[in-house]
Amino acid sequence: MTEGAGMSHRVGRTHWRRFATVLVPGVAACATLGIVMGEGALAASFLISGKRFTVTADTLVSRGLSSYGMVDVTKRGELVPVQVVGSRRATISGLCQSVLIDVPVLGPQTLKITGGNERPVEASNLFLDTTFQSAGEADFRNFDMGIAQGEITKGPINPGDRDSRFFDPSGFGQQATSVTLTDVHVTAVALTAGTFNVPGLRVRIEQGRHECS
Fold it and tell me: Which residues does residue 91 pair with via DSSP β-bridges, in sequence order?
């Protein structure tokens, strides 16, 4: 990519090894089934708890990718800067999601969700609010970095975000027609999804710290 005042645009294939924190889509985290909505529906904006959760995946393929900055608000009114990543369609293999919960008397407990080992997870209309993103390797196609957030078309914009006072139509955005990632690791505070199918879903609580890695 070259430096300049305009949007950096490269048509074709973009292949970055050891891609770390710029645009790793967080669609892998959608195994938080409690906030997955009905067929084709999107959740409205909501106040977040502020609790961070971890998601890992062996491989992730996303079609119709967007990325833009936002600020989430907790129930207590705290502001949490996030990078929202969205995907129209995604398939995920080797999914693991975990959240650490401190329980009085019992101490730390880990809620862990896994699936997509024999058949991949399939998801649509996913939006993940992230604070950290990384991947061992990322292979983008038709990737744009520096596009105005209000001009993103290749991937979705959450309607709740577009109506928020924190959404800047002239802010820094990114998009791609598709991306394939391996060795994905994401930290997030919230997500919404239209549809989410998890073959081989497993949910368990483990004593101590046993987060996905």
Answer: 61, 122
Higher pLDDT, 22 or 122: 122
**Residue at token pair 């549809």:** 195
CA separation for the pair 84, 157 (Å, rounded)? 9
The predicted structure's pLDDT at residue 130: 94
Please identify which residue in the block is written with the tokens 């409690």.
34
Question: In which region does residue 35 sit, left (phi positive, over 0), alpha (psi from -120 to 50) or beta (all else)?
Answer: alpha
What single-letter DSSP state applies at residue 74?
B
Distance CA 100, CA 108 (A): 7
Structure tokens at 122: 């399939």
Measuring CA to CA, which residue among 52, 207, 39 is closest to residue 128? 52
Are 103 and 208 within 8 A, CB to CB? no
Query: Whole-angstrom Cα distance, residue 175 to residue 23?
Result: 9
Rounded distance between C-alpha atoms, residue 99 and residue 77, angstroms: 22
Residue with tokens 């061992």: 136
As a whole number of angstroms, the distance between CA 50 and CA 99 comes to: 12
Distance between CA atoms of 33 and 37, rounded to whole angstroms?
Answer: 9
pLDDT > 70: percent of the chain: 79
Q: What six digits make up the tokens of 204?
A: 């368990």
